[in-house]
Structures are given as C-alpha cells and as structure tokens.
Amino acid sequence: MNNLAPIVLFVYNRPWHTKQTVEALQKNELAQESELFIYSDEIKNEDARKSVNEVRSYIDSIDGFKKVTIIKRGKNWGLADSIIDGVTSIINRYGKIIVLEDDLVTSPYFLKFMNDSLVKYDDEKKVWHISGYTPPFNSVEIKKHFFIKPTSCWGWATWADEWRYFKKDTRYFLSKFDKQKIKDFNVGNTYEYYSHMMLNHKKKLNTWAIFWYATVYLNNGVSLHPKKSFVNNIGHDNSGEHCVENCSYDVDIAFNYGLNDFPDKIELSDSINRDLSIYYKGLKKPILIRVVSKIKKILRKKR
Fold first, then answer.
1. Which residues, in sequence order, are CB contacts of 111 under 8 Å at separation 6+?
2. I need a surface site. Which of 52, 91, 179, 223 has the fewest CB within 10 A?
C-alpha cells in the first residue's frame, strides 16, 4: 500500500505500558512500511525522572518500522498540549495521521484498518474521524463497521482538512450548545461528554479529546468505528494522567480482517445509537460502589 499515514505515538513515564503498545504495533503487517514518530514528554517533577528515563532509553532502541523519529520534549508539555502540538505538526506535513498513546494494545490489523479507512473515506465530507476502538456494547445491528457521532481517542486517525477546524476554546464551544444539543452530544444524556468541556472551562481538567469531538459534532461530522475493536486500552490501572481503575472498557481485539466490512453508505443507525446509550447507562456505578472504590484507592496510596 502506497502513501501510508504516519503513526504518531505519545509517551511519558510508563515503560511497561509503552513496551506493550510498541510490541503490538510492531506485529502489524504494515508496520515495516510505516513511519513512526514518538513524542516523549519531559518530567513534570523529579519523581518521574527514573521512569521517564526508562521510557526514553527503550524508545531509542525501537525498530521494525520504515523510519522512527523521536522528539524528546525539553520541558513538560502535559498530554493535551503535547498531542495538539504533535498532531498539528505531523498532519500539516503529511495530510493525514494515525495517533496512539502509550497504553493502547493494537490488533495486527489496526494499521490496515486505519489506512484503508483513510483512503476509502478521504473524499467523504461527512466522515471526520476514524476510531480503532469500539466499546464492548452489544448490538445485533453491528454486522459491519459503523458510524456514530462520538469520537474515540484510543487509537484514531483523521485528515488535515478536518483537523484544521480544531480549536481548544471553551468559550467558543460553550456558546454553541443549547439544551437540545447537549442532550444529543451526550448520547441522549447517557454519558457526560459535555461536563468534560465544563471542567476544562473551570480549569479543573486539561484535556484535548473533548474539543475534537465537539469540533466534529458541530460540523455535522461522523466517526467510523470497527464492528470489533482493533484496540484495547491497558491503562485503566491508575497509571495514566486521566485513567482510573475500570474494566468496563476492556475488549477482545479483532484478529481477522475483511474488506467487505466497510459500509458504503454514510449513515447513522438509530438502533446502534440506542444500544450505545444502554451501554453508557450501565457504566454509571451505584453510589455505594463508588464510595468503596474511592476508599480502596485511598488505602492503596497509604501503603
């Protein structure tokens, strides 16, 4: 396959997770034909020095790709700013991009799915985002890859024409949402996407993905998701910047691939959206479970 999209991987201080991510990526059939860019963030404080150095030592040894380019930050950017800067820099050079973080284990067909999707839907103005991850919700309607409104940041791809609309501006986005839009944005108020925007506005969070979803949503774009996930997130172990201990997102990744799995029509399915809503509702833990989980977390920190 010619003109493969560059892969951009963002790492920080998790050597074990980073190794799992890279080793799975190396097993992809298009790995040796793909360029890999790795952005390594600098320490936030001295407590992270040892683990950041371990990660940097490991990424210096990575091979198995057409070319590996490593960008070691001289200061701590934080995940959100590092991703925005890195994605913008690479996508403006190549016109398209595949993005991973350091806790994502991919199927051997992940790169093929992403590149095939980028080619197939390149001229489809409604398709703004390709997701490699699909949550473990049950739907008898999922017979092919499908489109939904929400984007996913766990292994994703897009094009420069779409990314140029990205902005991280809470005042702008908050002015664009009314009550009905918020409900739709939140998948029928079953998942608190909009609250992430509010928390960013109040500076209680510093994230980027919610702004990309809002960009896609307000431009009437849709996100392609695979019928079976090509990505599993192994970071829900309190090791990451925004991760909590939760196995509700764990999936078995796909180990087969079919060209006939791609939909020709760009349309949303009411039944898939309904089943996604049911899945999101199930993620809301009863208050007692939340309290117990919080107590366990506090006790672990005291050990």
1. 4, 7, 25, 28, 29, 30, 31, 34, 98
2. 179
